[in-house]
Automatic annotation (TrEMBL):
InterPro entries per record: AAA+_ATPase (IPR003593), ABC_ATPase_HisP-typ (IPR030679), ABC_transporter-like_ATP-bd (IPR003439), ABC_transporter-like_CS (IPR017871), MetN_ABC_transporter-like (IPR050086), P-loop_NTPase (IPR027417)
Species of provenance: Paenibacillus algorifonticola
Protein's recorded name: Cystine transport system ATP-binding protein
Major subcellular site: membrane
CDD domains, alphabetized: ABC_HisP_GlnQ (cd03262)
Keywords: ATP-binding, Cell membrane, Membrane, Nucleotide-binding, Transport
Membrane topology of this protein: Peripheral membrane protein
Parts of the chain that traverse the membrane: none
UniProt domain ABC transporter: residue ranges: 2-242
Gene3D superfamilies assigned to the protein according to its UniProt record, in alphabetical order: P-loop containing nucleotide triphosphate hydrolases
Any one Gene Ontology molecular-function term assigned to this protein's record: ATP binding
Coiled-coil stretches: none
């Protein structure tokens, strides 16, 4: 579903991704771990076409991005990749002046140009999927953080993505609201969604991930099944990271 080869990304000459080779199969749940500044968000943003690559390539479901291709083809492929991947951010990024349903159907109307009735039917179904069928008309300010994040997940799901990218989806939530978001993510995992998740929720990583990818300093340092990674990390850097978590 996703394959990156020697993916690099620099900001003003500073290389923050230093040759990432990552493969994600359909239906896999990958948890991406690593210290702050190791490049996790940048990697997700590259995968979603929010950052241009400095080198190497990305392929998502057969659609390619590299630095050699003509701008026209690249722009077209970036659009395709954005349409086929959904991103969920730490700060939910909902439109404050739109209801829950309004947020979920916005891209269906604007990007997919569906008729309103069709978009509303999909939007209702997606909000039901995240347990918010009772909140269709609620504005974000009237929703808890956990509910807002579930609206954001419903919004991503509405576009029928091939893959969902989560960047610390529970880090901005009060502790008592984390569980309801993780429950929705776990349900999506069970349904076979392909997911790449940056999170500090180690219990989620251990129990839901098929594979843990550990990054440090712009590189993938270690990749393993969660029980192997947590109980027998192979590298000193991973051991240090895990020890700090306590
Ligand atoms: P993580 O998500 O693992 O904490 P990031 O991907 O956010 O790491 O950042 C990796 C490195 O890239 C950091 O050193 C950060 O300062 C730098 N960085 C990220 N985005 C930008 C940007 N837009 N401009 C300059 N530097 C950036
Ligand atoms: Mg980050």
């Amino acid at each position: 579903m996703i394959k990156t080869e020697k993916l690099t990304k620099s900001f003003q000459g500073a290389e923050v991704l230093k040759g990432i080779n990552l493969q994600v199969d359909a239906g896999e749940i990958i948890v991406l771990l690593g210290p702050s500044g190791s490049g996790k968000s940048t990697l997700l943003r590259c995968l979603n076409g929010l950052e241009t690559l400095s080198g190497g390539s990305i392929e998502m479901n057969g659609v390619r991005l590299d630095t050699q291709m003509k701008p026209r083809e690249r722009n077209q492929n970036v659009r395709t990749i954005r349409r086929h991947s959904g991103m969920v951010f730490q700060q939910f990024n909902l439109y404050p002046h739109k209801t829950a349903l309004g947020n979920v159907i916005e891209s269906l109307l604007v990007v997919k140009k569906l008729p309103r009735s069709e978009a509303v039917a999909i939007g209702k179904k997606m909000l039901e999927r995240v347990g918010l069928e009772g909140k269709l008309d609620a504005y974000p300010s009237r929703l808890s953080g956990g509910q807002q994040q579930r609206v954001a997940i419903a919004r991503a799901l509405a576009m029928e993505p091939d893959v969902l990218l989560f960047d610390e989806p529970t880090s901005a939530l009060d502790p008592e609201l984390v569980g309801e978001v993780l429950d929705v993510m776990q349900q999506l995992a069970r349904e076979g969604m392909t997911m790449l998740v940056v999170t500090h929720e180690m219990a989620f990583a251990r129990h839901v991930a098929n594979r843990v990818v550990f990054m440090d300093d712009g590189q993938i340092v270690e990749e393993a099944a969660p029980e192997v990674f947590f109980d027998h990390p192979a590298t000193e850097r991973a051991r240090r990271f895990l020890n700090k978590l306590g």
